[in-house]
Amino acid sequence: MITLKTGRLTLLFLSLFSLPLQAANLTDIVNQAIENDAVILAARSQLDADSEVVPQSRSTLLPNLGLTANTRTIDRETSGGTNNLDERFNSNGYTAQLTQPLFRADRWFTLNAAKASKKQAAAVYAEAQQELMLRIATAYFNILRSQDNLSAAVSRETAFGQQLEQANERFKVGLIAATDVYEAQAGFDLAKVERISSQEARYNSFNALERLTNQSYQDIDLLDRSMPVQGPSPSPRQSWIDSALLNSHQLAAQKHQLAAVKQQLRAEKSGHLPTLDATATYTHSEDGGTSFLGSESDTKIFALELTLPLFEGGNRSSKIREAHYRHEQAKQDYENIYRQIREQIQTQHRTVTTDVLRIKAQKAALKSSDSALEATEGGYEVGTRNIVDVLQAQNNTFNARRNYSNALYDYIINLLTLKRLAGILSQADLEDLNLWLKPNAATTTEG
């Protein structure tokens, strides 16, 4: 015969959510993640690095000033007739050259390609920011999901423990058979296993937030179940697809990449054109040889240099073909990304709409299971139901509570995912959600 002090379980469970540290809310975690998430920090550095391609490309159109200098030691020996000469002297000099490109069509197109690449990098970073917000929300509400699962598991274990106590008492006075005790014992043992697993899952659920923020958490604010559950707004699915065409950073990044490749194609084609540079050169030299009585000279040269490519062994034609193929590839990549986003929005829109209906159905199922449990327990008291019926009814109730919570968290995450696909997810959306997050004592529940 086994007895269970269920009060200890309740105290253990309450202690998990009554830690002395103040619970963190969604806004706090967002701010911490922005400062500490390794992925977004790496994306920021990638944006800064990719942006440097613009000044690098622009520099090829700006004046270029170079200075070269030399010094030489010369041993010279001259013989012939009566004029034999053996001397050792230094020869020094330097040259400064200023070059200003006047006509370099390929470099202008390369600069335009660099500007498009910088816009692409900015779009990629904006997409990373939205992805960070979604990762934060997913991690946050998965923690709440694990806490609700643990709460249901503890309640299940407590209820089955009480059922086991009652079965033992009834068996002692001969009201039930030993099989009912065994059924109650089996139900309690399985509930205990589930509680242990759920407890471990809750502890592990905080790891994602710690990775995002580099901060440790032991508790977070809970969701107020009175939060309104509404379908996508605007309701038409096409409106979300149209929004993605205007706002999707993923699509914008691919669009800018297409523009960059197009400019690179024009740069390769312009390689057949002549180039024109203006140069100014100043040279100073000193020669200390005695045979020339020493010399010192200064030379200034101003020139225009015209270069016309005539034949490069087919290299230029090959580069043009390569650029053309890459442009075609970028066009198809853009089309593919658009189709993917359109498909994902259609699926996600339907999922959110279904989530709203699912939540309503789960809420009704929760009320029905509570009523069924109450009726089954009443029937057990008068002998019309057995212990198996009661355990099954209790299982149904706890499963209904868990399913209702899961449906609610699925709805939140799926709605945020829909907004990210459409390119309109912002920190304001998380701040709106944060208004429905309350400390434990202030959190309301339904069912």
Describe this structure in words.
By secondary structure, the chain is an alpha+beta fold. The protein contains 12 helices and 6 strands. The chain has helices at residues 6-16, 26-36, 38-51, 53-59, 105-172, 178-205, 207-213, 237-247, 249-269, 315-382, 387-422, 427-434; strands spanning 64-78, 85-103, 222-223, 275-287, 295-307, 437-438. The strands form 2 sheets. Strands 1-2-4-5 form a 4-stranded antiparallel β-sheet, with no helix packed on it. Strands 3-6 form a two-stranded antiparallel sheet. Strand 4 (275-287) and strand 5 (295-307) form a beta hairpin. The radius of gyration is 39 Å and the shape is elongated. The model is unreliable at 1-21 and 441-447 (pLDDT under 50).
Outline the secondary-structure elements.
Elements: H1 6-16, H2 26-36, H3 38-51, H4 53-59, E1 64-78, E2 85-103, H5 105-172, H6 178-205, H7 207-213, E3 222-223, H8 237-247, H9 249-269, E4 275-287, E5 295-307, H10 315-382, H11 387-422, H12 427-434, E6 437-438
Antiparallel strand pairs: 1-2, 2-4, 3-6, 4-5
Helix pairs in contact: 1-5, 2-5, 3-5, 4-5, 5-6, 5-9, 5-11, 8-10, 8-11, 9-10, 10-11
